[in-house]
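Example 5.3 — TonB-dependent receptor
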Amino acid sequence: MTKFLSALFFLAALFTIQAQTTIKGTVSNNETDQPLEGASVYVSAINKATATDASGNFQLSGFGKGVYAIQVSFVGFETEVETFEVDDEKELILNIALEPQPFAINEVVVAAAYEKPQQEETFKIDVIPKQQMAKTGGMSVMDIIPKTPGVSAVSTGPLVSRPVIRGLSSNRVLTVVDGIRFETQQWDDEHGIGINELGLDHIEIIKGPSSLLYGPEAMGGIVRFVEEKPAEVGTTQADMEAMAYSNNRGGRAEAGVKSSSEKFNWGVSALGKLLSDYFYDGFDFRVPNTRLLEYGAKGFAGINRSWGNSKLSYTFNQAFYGILDGKDIVKDEDGRIINIDSLEKEKFPFETEAPYHGVIDHRIISKTTILAGASTIKATLGYQNNHRTENEELAGNKKGYTYLDMILKSYTYDVKWLLPEMGHFHTIVGSQGMHKNNANGNKGTTQLIPDADINDIGFFGVSRWEEDYFNLSIGARYDHRNLDTEESTNTTVTQPAISRTYDNLSYSLGAAYEPMEHLVFRTSVATGYRSPNLNELMSNGVKLESQRYEVGNVDFVKETNTEWDGSIAYEGKQISFEGSAFYNAINDYIYITPTGEETNSNLDPEVLVPLYEFQQHDAAIYGGEIMLNLHPNIISWGHLETSLSTLKGKLADEDEYLYQMPPTKWNNDLFITWDHWGKLTEWTFNIGTNTSFEQHQVASNEMETPGYTLVHLGLDTHYRKMEFFLNANNLLDNKYLDHMSRFRSYEIYSPGRNISLGIKMPLL
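Solution (predicted structure tokens):
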């Protein structure tokens, strides 16, 4: 290892002393040839950004020999990505013309490891800007992710949720943060995604198996959180954002500062949230203990050189999530739910009281890009420490006692080598690995999963063949996983020591054909896999939140799947359309199902609780999405967006639906814009509906849910450099049961009307 690091530093030093090139150029409107002032120019290989001046000119220095991709973007224009090569030039001129496009339809994506506009990808990647949170009145990032067609969320109240991509969730959907796979205690439904908006630029969502570049547990797709870009060279930038919410009388605030010079960049940011219990039926029914306290901070420092760049970041986050236990659901003689928390003196209680989850996260991430002539090496190293506790009720003590105490430590690496272009081929080879240790702490009185070690290693290769109107991608990957557990010694049930090995070979093949400008046909077939998680293998006891006894199976084998996707997309200036269909065949699908029986609780043998068992069977999920955006030139002040998504999940060879499959969804939004009104400028008004159809395609003993339609309003405007947001969600205060909510079986409705007010402003 010492020799390797020495060679790496020698290589970096060698590149540092080479001649450096300055890039100059102009950004203009390709229809009028007028220069664009304030256009953003970014080169990721050296992690540098700048903006054009009043004449549309820009300049960036410090380029060594190599191949670079430059991203140029401007509001109201289509983002452009151009590749250029630096050899021995002292100065290189790049003049870039942007095409007017009033609405972002061809964003640049990085999830596929190539910096490409969406139009050039062989599979669809949905992009969600961070500012959608404020523009839609979201309290967390999970409020905006389910607005993507084909994406839903399993929720335990409005503040604890996790993504569902085309019917798959939990360990079948991989979360990637700042370039590394994010590991948390994601095996249980009441455990949320555990990510907030701190230091975020945008979110990228890949639907379908994505194991090639990211490894196991990406068989359903990827939710990738992409960090914000550095400050423009030679500047220090600072801003803040704050939101207040009416339904739970809560609020959130975020502030940050970042700075960049020719050779260095740094930044720090902090976030805080305090939210009380939510209401429905006006303010007549408060859903007890659905509150949240969260705070966190992030800092990073990086260097930029002609050989590339390196960046080190640290993130801390702590959150306390209230738990609504199944045992707390009480009904009167008429079958109506009684709010047993009615003795709470405060109407809007904020204090954390048992039962609740406490989650502490530490993340250290190192990202390095080395330019080696015509090739590029990218290395990402990560350390994560996820500490989850669960406090249960104890008479006379508001904080209760520690029921669970779990510590998860993960060490990850990700190395990619982007090989030199060979003809029309662009190839990436690489390796990824992880060591994960789960330990039960000394404070917990029970164990749900045993102490365990997981070791992963994988090798992959992906190649793209690019022509003017046709792109082809093909790749393969090999993965090996070892899982070893220890026999439980501090639990009321038996969990024996086991040792398991899982191997898998994955592949992917995709094609994109553009027969005419802005029209793209895509098709792909890909495979994925995941190993059973500790919960599915080792469960043998009562879950307090659901008040059910769950039993796993140590003999479960790995899950594998093969998914076919096909789509057609047209993205023009006046109309955008996309239609997609998929078929996902899953071998050895693991699911939990009620047995219809009751058994004695391991916590209190005199209490009978429902018995649930994990089972394994082949399954299939199929469906599709349709999206239509209208923005005609004759109506410059508005545009319409509509989308429809549907799917069906069934066990193979059986007339049995899969549990908790998302219902058909139909979303509509009308946007109206105008330049100014008095001293306020850049107005945008939005009115829309979110329709969820009735869900009758349910598993045995699963509750059906009726359909509903929610109305929302949004308004944002600017005063000087400040931006203001006003939103109303569930405007008509409808009472509805969300089929993806874990509260639906208790007949507890989702949140009623919520009005939010926010502000974003620069501090420097």
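Remark. The first strand starts at residue 21 and ends at 29.
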